[in-house]
């Protein structure tokens, strides 16, 4: 089971393991024990065709970023992987809502109800919810401004969307 060219199982394991870490950061020295604890099995590097853990981790640069040098190295998900994970979580949250939408002012509460944990934007590698939302393609979510609030929703089929006047997406009824 080689990683290059066909790594989805190991990539998914990495994402699942890292999302449970505070701010998605883990010292490299904690990787093997964390993997063993999380999956109740040994992470055998040789199963993936490598002889060193660092080589295996470096083989998935689209998912994992290695920060620092030597024994002080930290593992974190790449920006792309974090945005993809947030997008999946956001769509789950929106589908959890009866109206398939949530106002930004209600986002923290909706997140808690959906995932049974507090919303922490740092868990997705950003400092602001609006910055995260700006990373998601317009075809995936719709952002509208209603009264004094911003509303995030799942685009409706056949909905006419257009870029206009500095707003990311405007919806015309």
TrEMBL record:
<keyword id="KW-0221">Differentiation</keyword>
<feature type="domain" description="HTH OST-type">
    <location>
        <begin position="82"/>
        <end position="157"/>
    </location>
</feature>
<dbReference type="InterPro" id="IPR041966">
    <property type="entry name" value="LOTUS-like"/>
</dbReference>
<dbReference type="GO" id="GO:0030154">
    <property type="term" value="P:cell differentiation"/>
</dbReference>
<feature type="domain" description="HTH OST-type">
    <location>
        <begin position="6"/>
        <end position="80"/>
    </location>
</feature>
<dbReference type="InterPro" id="IPR025605">
    <property type="entry name" value="OST-HTH/LOTUS_dom"/>
</dbReference>
<dbReference type="Pfam" id="PF12872">
    <property type="entry name" value="OST-HTH"/>
</dbReference>
<protein>
    <recommendedName>
        <fullName>HTH OST-type domain-containing protein</fullName>
    </recommendedName>
</protein>
